[in-house]
Batch of 2 targets.
Target 1
Amino acid sequence: MDILLIAGLWLDGSAWDDVVPELTALGHRPVPLTLPGQGDGAASATLDDQLEAVLAAVDAATGKPLVVGHSAASTLAWLAADGRPEKVAKVALIGGFPAADGRAYADFFAIEDGVMPFPGWDPFEGADAADLDQQARDRFASAAVPVPEAVAKGVVRLTDERRFDVPVVVVCPEFSPAEAEECIAAGDSPELARATHLEYVDLDSGHWPMATRPRELARVLAEVADS
């Protein structure tokens, strides 16, 4: 199965470099996506530009792909299900829930000169970054790509209720499946609360398992694709 890989904020397709060979060895075709505004100098890129690139990848896939969204990009993966409900086989969300219709995509940190730069590690101390050593943190920070303002503040638009019939798997790294279920039951994710087919998979890692547990993450994604 084609597996489209969308990394979260400040990351491009290279974030999946250690996951790609593992997925290939497991018999799948991983397709890491580098979207407009992710290192191409296009600070004017918008959320719609990024979504168009994701939908183009869905359209180009062989058969129905598994669309994987990490962190904030869980919303992009869910937007793909909304835009192509008949073409997306499944959605896997790693460490994130999709934003609801009418909400900003990822307006979480300060905007400087038209972009949202990586804010440093203070906001992520604790479970998020617990398994990242100093070398890994330095490598992440040096490679971080500022997020264009029109992406971070882009308004999410969901229009096709057939998205709720696309199977969803929530991969739980820095939180447990029980905690994820509790959050959804409490109303933290109105979208996932309406999903017809919703499963949870535990993964013992911090927020960036593609960097710290690539083999384990690949195995989880392969199992999602195969099931």
Note: Residues 47-60 form the longest helix (14 residues).
Target 2
Amino acid sequence: MSFDLTLLAPYLGDLAAGARLTALACALALAGGLVLGIIAALMRTAASPLARRVAEVYVDIFRNVPFIVQLFFLFYGLPEIGVELDAFSTGVLALSLAGGAFTSDVIRSGILAVEPGVLEAAQVSGLSRFALYRRIVLPIALRSSVRPLGSVFVNLILTSSILSAITLNELTGSAKIIAADTFQPFEVYALLLVLYAVLTWLVSLSAGALHRRLNRDHG
């Protein structure tokens, strides 16, 4: 068997386009998942039993159901009730919902790790509960959660490869098309392996650097 990466040279632009689509989908999903995760974490630490239960149901569903089942439900199931989304929007929504469930665990842990003395001092100063969380609890929780959130983002990148199942030509989808066109699956998927490794390594490196920068004055 010969190994010739030069055969893929004409397709590098397609792979680059797929990589950009993967990066965009994951960046949007990270933002969406962060918002959902913060909301779910606040509900899971709320005094209301109903709020805690609703959040736990959301987390349990999207953390314990296979991602491809969630994806197929959104892409093929929702149109049956009149809700139609294109492949990219469906992919971002699916990643956001799944990412939010995992992000809520990270944020919740950060909230619970805030020292009681900090909360007591803030309450004595007369801050409302909303101001307390907005100005003190969430900033501390997010600062301590940078590394775990980096891991969630890495997982989103890896999970995004499944979006090719709904005809989205992200990185994996583009690679599948190229492999079919060139009849060189070994070279194509070897390159794909390297690209995913580089992407996830860069995210992990960036998360570590951001964590050190945000926490350098906090021990």
Note: The mean pLDDT is 88.
